[in-house]
Amino acid sequence: MSLKKGAGLLVAFGLMLGLIGAGVGAQFTSSVTAQENIKVGTFQCIISNASNGATIAGDGNWVSYTAPDITSSAAGNAPFWFQVENTGSMPALLSVVMTTPPAAPFTSLPITPAGPVTLASLATQVYNGGLQWPELTQANTGLTYSVMYTVSCNETSAPTVSFVSGPALDARGYVPTYESGTGFNPGPVVTTFTYAWGGAGYVFTGLATADGAGNFSWSGEENCLDNFGGTYQTTDQLVNLTATDGTHSATGTGVLLCHLLPNHP
Q: In the predicted model, is pLDDT for residue 128 greater than 80?
């Protein structure tokens, strides 16, 4: 190898080292960020108004009303109203039931509206109820009677059920009953209502059909005439109602305006 060729090789090698050295050093960089924020809305119902003289809890969860004393043995009634307000940011589905029936001879005035009510945010709904009574006797003096209603507030998409009966008897002298529900899959819905019947309890299972909107209704009747003279038995019974379509289920309560025990001594 000649010196000229060897020098040429050295120069070429030196250029390669220079290129390698130039690749080691700081690089320009840049970055960006993206963030999503979401807030859960509020959901709450309160009692915001009621009959004159009623006491409403500070948080609006309950109201208590003491009607004027009864000063006559004559039949009469004491109406009572209360207002439910949706203070949340979401719509609510309201359902009302009588959770504490009055003791005989007192009965509840029909609660209205009885069916489910959709309440928009910040909207209100007034419910009317109260107590009524026939002619009183000496045995009633000094006693206190009461009735209690519970309003359930649920998401509008959540399934709900309700049970009501009467108040008027049908043509056969029986008590008509009504079951209804919302938020179910279209098709068959199995319903079951129960109430205390002596020590065993009473259970009735039926089949309803939800329409394309997911709503169902069913009506029946109960024979509350006893076997000892055909007397209408008016002792109110608290009813528990459940409904299921196999995917969605709901439970509610209502009142049967009679009892069947005298029919089966």
A: yes
Q: Please indicate, yes or no, if residue 9 is contained in any of the structural domains.
A: no
pLDDT band at 6 (very low <50, low <70, confident <90, very high): very low
Comparing C-alpha atoms, which of 179, 161, 163 is closest to residue 244? 161
Domain range spanning residue 234?
A: 159-265
Tell me: do 117 and 59 sit in the same domain.
yes
Write out pLDDT tens, residues 105-126.
999 998 998 877 889 999 999 9
* Whole-angstrom distance, CA of residue 44 vs CA of residue 30: 47
Q: What are the C-alpha distances in Å from 161 to residues 16, 109, 192, 197, 225?
A: 84, 21, 11, 22, 27
Residue 183 gets the label, from left (phi > 0), alpha (psi -120 to 50) or beta, of left
- Positive or negative, the CA dihedral 16, 22, 25, 27 is negative
Question: In the chain, which residue ranges form alpha helices assigned H by DSSP?
Answer: 3-22
- Give the bridge partners for 164, in sequence order: 178
**Beta pairing, strands 45-50 & 76-86:** antiparallel
pTM above 0.85, yes or no: no
In a domain, 263, yes or no: yes
| Residue-by-residue DSSP string for 62-112 | -EE--PPPP--SS-EEEEEEEEEEE-SSS-EEEEEEEEEPPPTT-EEPPPB
